Each structure stands twice: as C-alpha cells, then as structure tokens.
Amino acid sequence: MGRKLLLEHINVPGIETFDVYRSKGGYDTVAKALKMTTDEVVEEVKKSGLRGRGGAGFPTGMKWSFLAKPEGRARYLVCNADESEPGTFKDRYLMTYIPHLLIEGMIISSYALGAKVSYIYVRGEMMPQIRILEKAIAEAKAKGFLGKNILGSGYDLELYVQPGGGAYICGEETALLESLEGKRGNPRIKPPFPAIAGLWGCPTVVNNVESIAAVVPIIRDGGDEYSKIGIGRSTGTKLISASGNINKPGIYEIELGVSVEDFIYSDEYCGGIANGKRLKAVVAGGSSVPILPANLITKTIKNEARLMSYESLSDGGFATGTMMGSGGFIVFDEDQCIVRNTWNFTRFYHHESCGQCSPCREGTGWMEKVLHRLEYGHGKLSDMDLLVDVSKKIEGNTICPLGDAAAWPVASAIRHFRDEFEWHVTNGAEAVTRNFGLAHYADPLPVLEPAAQ
Amino acid sequence: MKVTIDGISIEVPEGTTILNAARMIGGDIVPPAMCYYSKLEGSGGKCRTCLVKVSKGSEKDPRPMPKLIASCRTTVMDGMEVQNITSPEVIEARRGIVEMLLINHPLDCPICDQAGECHLQDLGYEHGLAKTRYEFDRRKFEKIDIGDKIQLHMTRCILCYRCVFTADQITDHRIHGILNRGDHSEISTYIHAAVDNDFSGNVIDVCPVGALTDKTFRFKNRVWFTKPVDAHRDCDHEKCNGKVTLWYKGEDVIRVTARKDVYGEVEEFICNTCRFDKKKTADWVIEGPRHIANTSVISSNHYETMHPLPVVKSDPKLIEANEEQFERNTRL
Predict the structure, then answer these.
(1) Predicted structure pTM score
(2) pLDDT tens, A375-421?
(3) Which positions in chain B touch A397 (Cβ < 8 Å)?
(4) Domain boundary residue among A228, A260, A280?
(5) Could you read off the pLDDT of B233-272 as tens digits, one per residue?
(6) Cβ–Cβ below 8 Å for A397 and B104
C-alpha cells in the first residue's frame, strides 16, 4: 500500500467540514508555516522537488523563486482550478471531498509568496465545487485562518473563489489571468511572464490545485522527507484520474515510480481491464499527451518496465514515449477505435481553440474535418500524411500550448496506429460497422540488437 | 544594441522589436505582418506570419531559442542573431501559416474589392501553394453593414484584431469586438448597431484583407485603374490633420484614404469627414502623385517607370553577410 499524503483522511466522514478536518490535524501546518520566514517556506518547497501537477511538470519551488518582488506592488497567488482536460478529474475530486486541504495550501503558499489577496479560479461548470469552496472559506475565516492577522502573526490574507465561463483555454495561465481580470479569455503573448507581470500587471504565480495541496504535506513533514518519496526527479505522490475500460476507474494517489503494469493490473489500483478484454492503448496524462499502444506503455523501447514518473513516461521522446501531463490515465481495450478517439479529441480542441492565432484556429478545424472523414470511411490514403503535416505546422507555432496539445494526439495516433487509419480507408464500409481490433498493438517489442561497437 | 538579421547587422535602441529592427534594415529580410500594426498598441502576435528563428539569443546567453518566435512582439537583445529568409525552417513554417490563413478565406480575388492592395494576396502569391489541400466547405457569413459607410464581410476576415484595436484606441468608444471562439469567431457590433464615430472609417484602412470595405467606393473601380494623388486640406477636427491620398478615376475623386507606407500602415489616421464627405478636387490642395512601390500592382501603367525586378535578386551586402554567417555556422 503506497503512502497517502493528500488523500490520507479522505474516507473520514465529514472531512469536508472544518471541525472534522481540524481534528485530523488540519491547519496545524498553517501555524507551523507562519512561524517560519517566507524564504524558508519557499526553500522547503524547493527541497521537496515538487513538480507542477497541472501538466507541464515545472518545479514549483523554482517557479516561486522567479516571482519578481518589486517594492510597493501587490503580488498574487492564483490557483488554477479550471481543470477541463478530457480524462483528468483529480482537482474536482480534491475540491469536492477535501476542500480544506486546498485552502490550507493556499494560506501557506500565499504566505510564502507574500500575497495578500489570492484567487481560486474554478471552471464555470463546477458550480457545486464553487459552493463547497466558498462554504469552506467562510468556515476557515470564522475560525481565524483567513482575514486579518491570521493566528496573531500579523499576516493578512483574503481568499476569493472566481468562477470561470467554462472554457478549456482559461486553464492556460495567461488566459486565466485575462479571464480573472474580466476580459475575454485569450492567452497573452509571452514574455512578459506572469511572474513579472501577471494579474493587473502585478507579479503573479499560477499553480494547479494539486500542487498547492501538496505544499501542506511538504511543510508538515519537511521538504527532505517529501523528496524521499518517489523516484529520481519525480518526487512525492500524484493523483491519477484513471478512466476508460478498467475494472475500477477513479482517483488514485500513487507514489511516483509505480510501474504502469502494476497500476493497470493490480487490485490496489485499476484492477485490470474490464470484462476480461485485452489492453490496446493508453493515454497516460490527459488528452493532450501522445497516445501509446499497449506494448509501448508497459515497456519502454529499451525493454525496461515503464514507471509512472515524469522521466520514465517520457522515455523515448515523442517517438516511443509520452508524458505525465496532468495525470489523466485513459485506458482503451481492444474494442476501442483509435481513429474515432483521435477524432473526438480533435473535435474538443477545435471547439476550445480561442481563435486568436491562425495555425490553431484554422488547423484544429481542418484536422477535425479530415479525421471525421476518415472515421466514417470516406478518407484517402494521403490523409494520414496530410494530418501529420498539418499537426507539424501547428505545433510550436502558436501563442499558447493549446496548439501543441491539439497536434500531439493526432501525430502520435498516426505514428503508432497508422495501419488502423489505413484500414479505415481501404475498408471504408467495414470501418463504420466494426473496429480494427487489437491487431499487433500488444505484441512484445522486438529486442533491439546491440549496436556494433 | 546590435542585432543581426539574416547576416545584416544594425544598431537599434533598446526595446525595439525584431520586426522593427528588420524594417530599419529594409528589403527582402523584413518578415511579413498581417496583424501587427505599429500604430496600434498591443497589436501583433496573432497571425504568426512574422515567425523568425533566433539562432543566437544574445551576447550574454548565446543559446538559440527553442521555438520560432513572433518577431513583432519579441524585443531584441544585444548580440542577437535572427534568421528569417535564410532559415528553411522559417520559410516552411510561414508556408504553413499562409495555408492556414487561406483555408477559410474565399479564393475569389477577382471579385474582391481589396484585390491589388490585399496583404493576404501578396502573401499567398509569395508563399502559397498553387492548389489548395483543403477539401471542405469554407466558413461563410452574410455581409453586414456597420453604419452607412462601412461594410463588413466576415467571410474574408482573417481575425487579425487590428480593427478591434483601432476601435479601442482611435475612436472615442469601443464600437465592435470579437464574438464567439475559435474558427466561429466573428468581428461584430452588438445587434448590428451602427458604427457612428468620427474616426470609425480607419478600420477600413487597417484591414489587411477585404473584410472591411468602404461602401462609397465598393466596386466602383479596380484599384490599379485609379491614380493615387497626395493631397491635404485644412481639417477642423482637432485630431485629424487632413493629409490624405486621393484616388482619381479620370477627373473624379472616387476614394479618399489615409497615406499608407510601404508596409501598408497608415502614416496618420484621418477623420470620417475627410474620408467620406470631401470627394471634390476643389476640397483639396493637391501635392502631387503618391509614390507607390514598383512591386505593387497599383503602380502598373502609371506615371512612374516600371523597373522590373532583376531575375536573380542580388544584394551584395546580403550575399557577403550571408557568407560570413554560413562560415560561422559551419565552423560551429
């Protein structure tokens, strides 16, 4: 049984209320943090090696230390709770069932960054979670953990919940800030980065819900203790949203470094593929990351076991690897159609593109139309090359990472499942009625011959 | 600050963008810009046609930048080396961008009023493919009249946001903006409200394509059959200095626009009275023919002698500098 840091008390009845959370040692860490200096708190987070849980995996402590601290200007901490990546639902779970953990993390992080006002930007569709958070904030404020002079330390903090309009693009940090300022949620052109000029032109840090929640165990146990969990530069625990054709879908807190095979098949986690089917493919970190066939997700190209960690998942680069992303683990069994799934993802990105810069605005729509044609058996053999070419022209040429996120799933699906796409063209009529099936996607990888010395 | 673009070095003041540094050098190495407009604050960064490769970040930090960057919004660093037309990667990316811009743009230049002075047309001519790879329906909208002088045809719009910035910054109050998202986005006024403002006509000048056109000129004539003449009048509007270009057909002034420079940007914004209401020669003091670049179709069959481009574009300065850079690159 792996160690649980975030979800330790998740099964305690009433943990969403202040009193129960407090009785389980909640908010003790606030008192501890307020006795430390702000630099010490940042130092602990740096030592912990915590990497941003929102998708990019950028070290949180490093991000905090980049924050500009000009005299006489306010600084802000904004929590990015605009979770809308298909396949990821960990933040919603955290906010629904243990909202005080986030608020405790917000208090400590705001203190460390010197923010007097902090925001939690919640996606518009999550209205119940917004109410839960507001109730929790009111409770914490009534007990003196928010507001003026917290616990007599002289530190003031106001915490606000801001509902978004439900746009995926507002999960991009600068679009989130624009939206928070009351404007159209278009990503800003960087530089300047939010650490220099963010919310209302002031230095701002934007962190994911899970990153902020993870600050609580870091300060409670110390950064060194936290960094002992996990493997290599992937430290600590991570929430994985497991979904798809598995026996036990849901949120799992894993110690980074569990093997992917264990994660899918062990009873502690997903409990194997549902209905006794065989594994075909996995999207390991939310819809934006490259999809991998069964043989490459359990083993790396060097025939080593693939682990749930930032490094191991990206082993092999884009050719044979994927990414940790935000931890949206989607499992496909042999009955699933990769073409249809790719089309579905692209449809999402087409719908969610903000329309600001041309490659993403036009390219996502184009890819969607071509994939739609392929899925319904009207494609051409040249479509695969066309898709790869279009995705290449979007990738890296856009203002924000949404363009990359739209391009990667398409490029990787064609890279690994090209014969399935081709089958959709050559057997167009059949493709509408049945699926390609597992084919060779779970075959053991060929053993590479050692290169001549 | 010293910046080197395609091997040509130039000293520029701090805070200059790469695009503006390139414009200071001039010539073939200037990246095209569909959305950037030097007179509009905050414009640029959207169309991505001005992408360039930074092969050396700066003197202090010589690492190249990992991705192509928008030259219109990136300021130069001392010792920066930029590749525009010397980088195949940039040319390839630009070709992709032009293709993307064109997939939802009707390819009906012969019936478009902007033809001849359309930046997208120029760009497509230079970078576009002969045949489209896009085989689906294009985005279509009905034409909308915004006010009695301006017509909006969203079908042709490339969403550069220039007119939105103009409405924000040049006119008294914001008159229109972007509705919807992604490729359903459209420039619109709320409930077709008339655009009624002293400076609203400038949205026509800033539009790089034929989406916003002058209803008093629409389909009167092809632009290359008209004669541009610089003129001015004593305008009583405090923000307008009355310096314009008159477009003659025979004896008649059929259009008045602001004076546009070689990058298609207006020198100064003009008021609606000058633009729409003063269409008699008697209203103006004529200064002389407007110089139009020889590369533009507007200049054909007009007063200035046509100097056809040499078949091989050769700029000794460019060749020499390129050789230097090539040598350095091969050394590394």
Answers:
(1) 0.89
(2) 998 889 999 999 999 999 999 889 988 999 999 999 999 999 999 99
(3) 48, 51, 67-68, 93, 96-97
(4) A228
(5) 888 888 888 899 999 888 888 999 999 888 888 888 888 8
(6) no
Answer yes or no: do B68 and A397 touch at CB < 8 A. Answer: yes
What average pLDDT does range B222-229 have in this prediction? 86
At residue A303 the predicted structure's pLDDT band, cuts being 50, 70 and 90, is confident
∠ CA A186-A189-A194, rounded to 5°: 90
Question: Would you say residue A12 lies in a domain?
Answer: no
Taking only residues 28 to 87 of chain B, the set having a beta carbon closer than 8 angstroms to any beta carbon of chain A reads 44-49, 51, 67-68, 70, 73-74
**How many alpha carbons lie under 13 Å from residue B207 in its C-beta half-sphere?**
26
Count of CB atoms within 10 A of residue A194's CB?
24
CATH number at residue A294: 3.10.20.600
* Contact present, A237 and A315 (Cβ < 8 Å): no
Cβ neighbours of residue A303 closer than 8 Å, sequence gap 6 or more: A445, A447, A448
The answer to whether residue A427 is domain-embedded is yes
Does some domain include residue A46?
yes
CB contact under 8 A, A353 and B68: no
Q: Do B46 and A363 touch (CB under 8 A)?
A: no
Give the C-alpha separation, A269 to A273, whole Å.
11
Contacts of B96 in chain A (CB under 8 A): 359, 390, 392-393, 397
Lowest mean pLDDT among A289-303, A394-408, B101-115, B315-329: B315-329
Reading the block at residue A106, the tokens are 């917000």
- B182 and A365 in contact by Cβ < 8 A? yes
Which structural domain range is residue A181 located in?
18-228
Which tokens go with A256? Answer: 């980074």
Mutation site for B-interface testing, chosen from A168, A189, A190, A358 by largest number of B Cβ within 10 Å: A358
H-run or E-run covering B97? helix B88-103
Domains of chain B: 2-98 (3.10.20.740), 221-323 (no CATH)
Domain boundary among the residues A333, A368, A384 is at A333
Q: Is A175 on the interface with B (CB under 8 A)?
A: no
Question: What CATH number has the domain bearing residue A359?
Answer: 1.20.1440.230
Average pLDDT score, chain A: 89
A248 with A112, same domain: the answer is no
A242 DSSP β-pair partners? A250, A329
B177 or A53, higher pLDDT: A53
Total domain count, chain A: 3
Q: Which helix (H) or strand (E) holds A234?
A: strand A234-235
The yes-or-no verdict on residue B325 having pLDDT over 80 is no
A170 and A81 share one domain: yes
